[in-house]
User: Which sequence fits this backbone?
């Protein structure tokens, strides 16, 4: 190190890596509970075939537990229980007046889902600096079972200024649609399987003490029964390749108890002809008052996508791919959110409210010709509490 | 640790936080103690001359010590502990010039090599982290408290301090500065809102011959005790920085005053006649 006029600055710089030093294995043990309610807005009455306008509602209970294991291992785990009720769109079609109309399923859906995730992580500090983690996730509901295994790793280089990260996830899902007597599609899907392989590679770089950047690329290959058995005339290809590139920036500001501006961008395209762009920004503000610490994070996200090549509202020829699923249509969406948390000693309570609005008009630059009245607006409200021991 | 240690924490601070802080201090002490054969430091010293792999924390501390060596022009040197063989403060005898001449060539942190988390030092060298270990432990204990959401209080390990944050009413902690000639009493108090405060003085280990005081703070290049200041107290962002700055100022003797001024820190320098010199960052 070169000797400088200000030794304090030089010594402080020598002391600085301490903050970024590690990551040592976390030592804390924590139990958390979170309740979220997901509520879809009603569908416009004028555009439904039946008078069913109430859509999906999901109550989600999440129980989290994390703790150090022996040696350099740390475990994250989560048990989730969801109950779903309401109706979902079965088909969007052109009615006799040339308008897009929605056929709803009727408020017949009433089911639950249990999801268990275990993610052990091994921390390395000596010869290499990084982490290696595994993932096991099992989910079961009356018409769908899923199991996923994954591995992810990170490697810190250049005194932690550069981090390489990668992950690989494999999943295997089995379908068992309810009320098979209702349609041929439901019967056809019974026992069918959906597989996925997903790969992500990224690199993050600390530019200076206030700015960090990350770029990454991902690839997912889905195969098997990818149609939606609950939708009418839904025939999708048996394979789907998805590609994404993302970039994230974090800028820190010494405002209040510290603040960070997040700016994320993501480009996505797939073999079904969909292109999408996502832009998200968040401001994470920390505030300290005595033994209380607060964090407030407002966020704004914009999403737009073009429709899948086989998206259509008119009946398809036999053997042709087709779907009227609004998630495969051209549309745009905004999401605004506000997350807040308060910590006191070992306790932390948190709340989060998100409002999502989507519409074909929100594509902004190029509005599609067809309306998509099934496009959903929803809100998510969550409340959580966490207790930590050292 | 040999000196009284205490944590002043707000009422209601969970006991496991306090225990974790205490355990952290003990962990660091055990890891870097030169009195324990099983410490990481003893292991490094026993393997002098070989290439020794270092864990992140030790690597970081030794790198920091190298920065101290460079910024003090070689006066602050964690390899100067061998001079204890010449200076026996219990016996109170002056070493011979021959003894010093034999030990001085063994000192010099510039002779160590660090590459890729491995340390190689000459076979005759010995490291002693006594000058930074305790200050580091103060900051480490304070870090645990902060991470547990405790933003008020003081961590005090024998006069090396870290203030977590001001009193509940927003007022600063008034921290006493030891009287170098009557170490049970305070000679002054300094207001600290947050950060580290540490003192270095001629009163910790010393003997006197013919009214002249020989203290344990030794110039690493001459092997002789410093005598210009009775003590130097510095307030800095962390206890480690405060401790290093106060030690270097002591070692720099007369030029310590100008050097501290150029660091733009709050400091209190006490001359052997107990007159005070206060430096403020304004």
Assistant:
């Amino acid at each position: 190190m070169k000797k400088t006029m200000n030794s304090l600055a030089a010594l402080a710089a020598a002391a600085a890596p301490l903050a970024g030093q590690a990551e040592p294995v976390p030592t804390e043990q924590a139990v958390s509970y979170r309740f979220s309610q997901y509520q879809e807005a009603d569908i416009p009455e004028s555009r439904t075939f039946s008078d069913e306008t109430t859509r999906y509602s999901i109550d989600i209970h999440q129980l989290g537990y994390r703790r150090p294991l022996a040696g350099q291992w740390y475990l994250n785990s989560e048990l989730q229980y969801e109950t779903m009720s309401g109706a979902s769109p079965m088909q969007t079609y052109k009615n006799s007046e040339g308008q897009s109309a929605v056929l709803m399923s009727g408020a017949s859906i009433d089911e639950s889902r249990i999801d268990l995730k275990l993610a052990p992580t091994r921390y390395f500090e000596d010869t290499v600096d990084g982490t290696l983690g595994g993932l096991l996730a099992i989910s079961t509901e009356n018409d769908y079972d899923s199991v996923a295994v994954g591995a992810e790793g990170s490697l810190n280089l250049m005194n932690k200024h550069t981090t390489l990260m990668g992950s690989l996830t494999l999943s295997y899902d089995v379908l068992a649609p309810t009320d098979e007597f209702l349609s041929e599609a439901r019967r056809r899907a019974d026992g069918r399987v959906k597989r996925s392989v997903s790969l992500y590679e990224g690199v993050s770089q600390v530019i200076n003490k206030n700015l960090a950047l990350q770029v990454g690329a991902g690839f997912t290959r889905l195969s098997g029964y990818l149609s939606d058995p609950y939708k009418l005339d839904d025939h999708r290809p048996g394979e789907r390749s998805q590609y994404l590139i993302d970039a994230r920036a974090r800028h820190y500001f010494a405002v209040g108890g510290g603040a960070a501006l997040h700016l994320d961008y993501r480009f996505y395209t797939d073999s079904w002809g969909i292109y999408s762009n996502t832009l998200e920004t968040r401001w994470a503000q920390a505030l300290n008052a005595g033994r209380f610490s607060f964090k407030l994070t407002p966020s704004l996200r914009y999403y737009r996508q073009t429709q899948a090549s086989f998206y259509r509202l008119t009946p398809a020829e036999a053997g042709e791919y087709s779907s009227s699923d609004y998630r495969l249509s051209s549309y745009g969406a905004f999401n605004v959110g506000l997350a807040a948390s308060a910590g006191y000693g070992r306790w932390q309570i948190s709340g989060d409210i998100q409002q999502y609005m989507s519409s074909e008009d929100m594509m902004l630059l190029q509005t599609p010709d067809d309306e998509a009245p099934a496009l959903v607006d929803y809100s998510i409200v969550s409340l959580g509490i966490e207790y930590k021991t050292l | 640790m040999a000196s009284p240690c205490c944590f002043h924490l707000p009422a209601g601070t969970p006991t496991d936080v306090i225990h974790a802080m205490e355990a952290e201090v003990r962990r660091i002490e055990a890891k870097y103690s030169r009195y324990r054969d099983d410490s990481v430091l003893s292991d490094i010293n026993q393997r002098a001359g070989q290439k020794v792999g270092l864990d992140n924390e030790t690597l970081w501390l030794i790198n920091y010590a190298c920065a101290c060596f460079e910024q003090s022009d070689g006066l602050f040197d964690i390899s100067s502990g061998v001079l204890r063989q010449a200076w026996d403060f219990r016996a109170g005898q002056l070493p011979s010039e021959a003894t010093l001449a034999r030990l001085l060539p063994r000192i010099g942190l510039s002779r160590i090599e660090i590459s890729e988390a491995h340390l190689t030092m000459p076979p005759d060298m010995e490291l002693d982290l006594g000058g930074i270990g305790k200050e580091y432990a103060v900051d480490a204990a304070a870090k645990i408290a902060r991470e547990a959401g405790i933003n008020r209080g003081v961590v005090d390990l024998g006069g090396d301090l870290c203030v977590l944050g001001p009193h509940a009413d927003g007022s600063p902690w008034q921290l006493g500065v030891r009287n170098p000639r009557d170490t049970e009493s305070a000679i002054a108090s300094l207001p600290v809102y947050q950060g580290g405060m540490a003192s270095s003085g001629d009163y910790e280990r010393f003997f006197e011959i013919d009214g002249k005081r020989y203290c344990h703070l030794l110039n690493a290049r001459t092997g002789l005790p410093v005598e210009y200041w009775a003590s130097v107290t510095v307030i800095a962002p962390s206890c480690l920085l405060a401790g290093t700055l106060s030690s270097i100022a002591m070692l720099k003797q007369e030029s310590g005053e100008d050097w501290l001024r150029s660091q733009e820190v709050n400091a209190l320098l006490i001359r052997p006649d107990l007159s005070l010199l206060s430096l403020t960052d304004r």
Remarks:
- The first strand of chain A starts at residue 29 and ends at 40.
- The mean pLDDT of chain A is 87.
- The first helix of chain A runs from residue 7 to 15.
- The two ends of chain A are 37 Å apart (CA to CA).
